[in-house]
Design goal:
- By secondary structure, the protein is an alpha/beta fold.
- It has 2 domains: 134 residues, Rossmann fold, CATH 3.40.50; 55 residues, Orthogonal Bundle (Arc Repressor Mutant, subunit A), CATH 1.10.10.
- It is built from 10 helices and 6 strands.
- A 6-stranded parallel β-sheet has the order 2-1-3-4-5-6, with helices on both faces.
- Helix 3 links the parallel strand 3 and strand 4.
- The radius of gyration is 18 Å and the shape is elongated.
């Protein structure tokens, strides 16, 4: 049985091109196309229209990808959402990850990359392209470097997955902003990551944070 995929993108020609690619894969089929998040959520009210995977554009009219992903994850937690975008902005990627996206795929990706992304999402639960990884995370972590994380470091990681600023995190943890910066810098070195996106990805993969 093939896994069903829905494409949500206001660029119709691009969506149709992706549809043809997906329908050529052995394990996948396109269920339908949508032009925005509202249209998607309206369709998903019918059980027959709930897919296994959604390829979600980020910038769309009426209801954008971040808000639509949040609503999908709230109402259909088993559906895997993969962001499909031209955006390489750190805040945009973080926004999609926090909303619940399990992957971030650039629109200029090759056919083979699209297939790999779909396969990894249904088999392993997540996918992030090497392009995005190298650009924003540096070296993708596969786990701690042998050192155990301290309780306060884990607490900091979980808070760093929210939209709070480091100053707000410091207030929640009842420590100074400098102490929070110390947690951050220590974790960057310990986990071999370069920024907050790295922390979010690590938290998701280590089951410290569930979008």
């Amino acid at each position: 049985m093939k896994h069903s995929v829905v494409i949500v993108d206001d660029h119709v020609l691009l969506a149709q091109a992706i549809e043809e690619l997906i329908n050529g894969f052995n394990r996948f089929k396109t269920l339908y196309l949508c032009k925005n998040g509202k249209e998607l959520l309206d369709k998903m009210r019918m059980p027959a229209n709930v897919p296994d995977v959604i390829l979600m554009d980020v910038n769309m009219p009426i209801l954008n990808g971040i808000d639509a992903t949040k609503m999908v994850k709230e109402n259909f937690p088993n559906v895997k959402v993969v962001a499909l975008s031209v955006e390489k902005d750190e805040d945009v990627i973080l926004g999609m990850l926090r909303a619940g996206a399990v992957g971030y795929l650039m629109k200029d990706s090759e056919k083979e990359v699209l297939l790999k992304a779909l396969e990894q999402v249904v088999d392993e639960g997540y996918y992030h392209t090497n392009t995005v990884t190298r650009l924003l995370v540096g070296n993708l972590i596969k786990g701690p470097t042998g050192e155990e994380l301290k309780e306060r470091e884990i607490e900091f990681i979980k808070l760093a997955c929210t939209e709070m600023t480091y100053k707000q995190i410091a207030e929640i943890m009842f420590v100074s902003p400098k102490t929070v910066e110390g947690y951050r810098d220590s974790l960057y070195e310990k986990l071999n990551i370069k920024n907050r996106i790295g922390l979010v990805l690590y938290a998701i993969r280590s089951h410290l944070f569930t979008p």
